[in-house]
Amino acid sequence: MIVMLLFSVAGINLITKEVATISGVAFTLVFFLIFVISERINERKDGAAAHIQMDQFQTHPQENVSKEGLGVRPGNTLCFVRDHHALDHVCKALEATDTEKKDFVVMTVQILKGPDTGYEGIAEHQLFTSYKQLLFTHVVALAEKEGKTVHLLVVPSSNILDAIVLTAARLDSAEVIAGPSPVLSPEEQARRFRKAWKNLRDEPKRQICFRIIDPDGNTHDFRI
């Protein structure tokens, strides 16, 4: 009834005040477009946190990363994420992994900067931020869509690559999966991973696969 009433008023105005009505409609459309564009820009800037119903997670802080603490078996898959807009590699990796036979760990790194970069005494809200919650909400949605189980992990570090290789070593992961870098070639990504792996204090005497999955599904495997 309200819609019919409004349309009837608009029809009367259009007949009696054609120029004013057309101008008003044009004015409304212009402002509507401005609001839509502004909302899209803010969603990209803020991660759309205010418009997405985020999952609630229980956190279990631990001093060190370990297979026992995370509850995963040796030979697991470690998948690195940091941007909820770039999770194509997670989707492809989940499709190819039977999580009943091989555990699937999704990790992200909380960068620590400044003089207080030590890992002790980190408050929970500093480690598991609202953006990490948003990121893992998207990851869980992908896992549920595939009907797969994932283990979620946030690691504090001042260096992303060091955190990844150290986590892979401590979890005894068989492979590390990442998305493509916007500035580095897959070969350069692998070279840096190999260097970080060899710089571990106790370099594991075993082979690990570093895999990069492009958005189109193409994979680049490097045995290290």
CATH top level of the largest domain is Alpha Beta
Strand-residue proportion: 5-15%
Look at the structure and give the mean pLDDT. Answer: 87
Number of helices: 8
Q: Indicate the overall shape.
A: elongated
Poorly predicted ranges? none
Strand order of the largest sheet: 3-2-1-4-5-6
* Largest sheet features: 6 strands, mixed
CATH topology heading of the largest domain: Rossmann fold
Structural features, described:
The chain is α/β, with parallel strands linked by helices and 224 residues long. The protein has two domains: 2-50; 69-223, Rossmann fold (3-Layer(aba) Sandwich). Helices cover 46% and strands 15% of the residues. Strands 3-2-1-4-5-6 form a six-stranded mixed sheet, with helices on both faces. Helix 1 packs across helix 2, helix 4 runs parallel beside helix 6 (130-146) and helix 7 (160-171) crosses helix 8. It is elongated.
Which features characterize this protein?
224 residues, alpha/beta, Rossmann fold, 2 domains, six-stranded mixed beta sheet, 8 helices
Short description:
The protein is 46% helix and 15% strand.
Question: What's the layout of helices and strands?
Answer:
Elements: H1 2-16, H2 18-46, H3 67-70, E1 77-80, H4 88-96, E2 104-111, H5 124-127, H6 130-146, E3 151-157, H7 160-171, E4 175-178, H8 186-198, E5 209-213, E6 219-223
Parallel strand pairs: 1-2, 1-4, 2-3, 4-5
Antiparallel strand pairs: 5-6
Helix pairs in contact: 1-2, 4-6, 7-8
